[in-house]
Specification:
The chain is an alpha+beta fold. The protein is 24% helix and 27% strand. The strands form four sheets. Strands 3, 4, 5, 6, 11, 12, 13, 14 and 15 form a nine-stranded mixed sheet that branches. Helix 2 packs parallel to helix 5, helix 2 packs parallel to helix 7 and helix 3 packs across helix 4. The longest helix has 33 residues. The two termini are 24 Å apart.
Length: 522
């Protein structure tokens, strides 16, 4: 990834990727069989595999890269039962009962993470902390927003929530804040590394660099990987955005990029907690203690302050460097003790129209094909909920959350969000009619990409640091939108449904499941 101009000294990757190593795994080399085949080795896939293995089921996990190399690696790992879209909206969309189940399921996910981390005896920095929601000064929402949210949270069963005069941040006055006790934080990759080892010890098989080309339900279900086929009684597609679905899910969720920095702060200078403001593209903050073995957590040492926000629709902005600059400026104004920025990264979240993930049987598919998607900014808890719920569904056990997370659900009260997001998608097809971003490939600097027009075709052209040019079709193979260059992540991003590709065209995020096509004769 290319460092931004704003923060040239920062490591342009998440802190987790630099401080943990998952098992390397091996490539699938033959056709085989299992009770359950799981496509995707992130938080949802590995949690599901771990729980099913404990129940004596034979499990195969496939990932087309290293384990947890997708959006799980990019999380900030806030563990919370405080819903990202806020309880006032969840209650409006799903009713009081639905809001209670949502809060209950996320609380159960945190409990499960705590239990599993103890069970595996892994030092993954899990800790229970408080969470604080405070009103942003420039938030144009109703003045009683916090009062409304507190009332909705209490009716959803969060009886420990309370209004305070301010959040416990000495460096700036947040004004009134709701305290939500019993939240959590974790080092996600250390947690998953231990879980992956336990899966293998329990007889599960983990295959990396093994791209699932197709998923077919039935008796048995079949997953095609190159020349090989995995047959299974059940298939779970846990690829962040489903690769086996054309429209049913993708019209009900939208991809958004979010940005993060990790900066040094003196040890003990920031209260260890989770913090959120009330903006639409809200800021989210947490503390991460440095490794005890390095001495950084001594009183003379430092911790990392993780600050995120500045979200935008994927593929519909090209100012990631400015967003990182604004994020740093926002943080320094409120945390003046903040030192150098060590990490800069970004990730993609799938926002559903009604605030909750889609977990369960894939719509309009065979009964033994399941999907997990729609993290809605709460990927670690939603992914853990997926493991708990899908294990029950596969084992034929009842689960009170099944209807709430059903991928086939129709939330009529969220119809306006559905219309808004799909009109946005429709507008992206106008890119077929526009000119290019540059007149010629000669205008593309080293380490950069741009879309240009060549006759009736749109070309995605990338020039590497050595000056070598790669030309690809700019047409996303999912539903034919025109991809856009993401300068911060050095990826081609689809502005319609969130497919993402490396500079050489390799697909790294669905719903597309094949690479960008090379330009013939280029």
């Amino acid at each position: 990834m290319v460092p931004t101009a704003a923060l040239p000294e920062a490591s342009h990757q998440s802190i987790w990727a630099q401080t943990a190593q998952l098992p390397t795994g091996r490539r699938l080399s033959e056709s085989t069989q299992a009770d359950v085949c799981i496509v995707g080795g992130g938080i949802a896939g590995l949690t599901t595999a771990y729980l099913l293995t404990k129940q004596g089921r034979s499990v195969i996990v496939l990932d087309d890269g290293p384990l947890a190399s997708g959006m799980t690696r990019m999380t900030t790992a806030h563990l919370s039962n405080v819903i990202d879209d806020r309880f006032v909206n969840i209650q409006r969309w799903h009713g009081v009962g639905g809001a209670r189940l949502a809060a209950e399921s996320h609380a159960a996910a945190i409990d499960s993470i705590e239990s599993i981390s103890r069970e595996l005896n892994v030092d993954c920095a899990f800790r229970r902390v408080d969470g604080y929601l405070y009103r942003a000064p420039d938030d144009g929402a109703a003045s009683d927003l916090l009062d409304q949210e507190l009332a909705a949270a209490l009716s959803a069963g969060l009886t420990g929530a309370e209004m305070l005069a301010r959040a416990p941040i000495d460096s700036f006055d947040t004004g009134q804040a709701i305290r939500f006790p019993n939240q959590g934080r974790i080092h996600p990759l250390k947690y998953l590394a231990s879980m992956a080892e336990a899966i293998e010890k329990g007889g599960g098989r983990l295959f990396v660099d093994s791209h699932a080309e197709s998923v077919q339900g039935g008796t048995p279900a079949r997953v095609k990987v190159g020349k090989h086929t995995i047959t299974a009684d059940h298939v779970v597609v846990a690829t962040n955005s489903p690769i086996n679905d054309l429209l049913a899910i993708h019209t009900k969720q939208a991809p958004y990029m979010t940005y993060v920095i990790g900066a040094k702060v003196p040890h003990g200078s920031v209260t260890d907690a989770l913090y959120w403001d009330t903006l639409g593209a809200y800021h989210y903050v947490r503390l991460h203690p440095r490794e005890a073995s390095s001495g950084d957590t001594s009183p003379a040492g430092y911790d990392l302050l993780i600050v995120g926000g500045e979200d935008h629709k994927s593929g519909q902005a090209d100012d990631a460097d400015q967003r990182h600059i604004r994020l740093e400026a926002w943080a320094r104004e409120r945390f003046p003790m903040m030192g150098e920025v060590e990490f800069v990264w970004g990730g993609q979240v799938m926002e559903t129209i009604d605030g909750l993930a889609f977990i369960g049987r894939n719509p309009m598919d065979q009964e033994n094909v399941y999907v997990v998607t729609g993290d809605s900014g709460m990927g670690i808890t939603h992914g853990t909920i997926a493991g708990l719920l899908l294990t029950d569904l596969i084992l034929g056990r009842e689960n009170p959350w099944e209807t709430l997370y059903d991928p086939s659900r129709k939330t009529w009260r969220a119809a306006s969000s559905f219309v808004k997001e799909n009109l946005n998608v429709a507008r992206q097809y106008a890119d077929w009619l526009t000119g290019g971003e540059v007149e010629s490939v000669d205008d593309i600097a080293a380490g950069s990409g741009a879309v240009l027009r060549r006759g009736l075709s749109k070309i995605a052209a990338y020039r590497d640091e050595q000056g070598t040019l790669t030309e690809l079709s700019a047409v996303c193979p999912h539903l034919q939108c025109i991809v856009q260059w993401n300068p911060a992540e050095s990826t081609w991003d689809c502005p319609c449904h969130g497919s993402r590709f490396l500079p050489d065209g390799q697909v790294i995020n669905g719903p597309a499941n094949v690479n960008l096509a090379p330009v013939v004769g280029a």
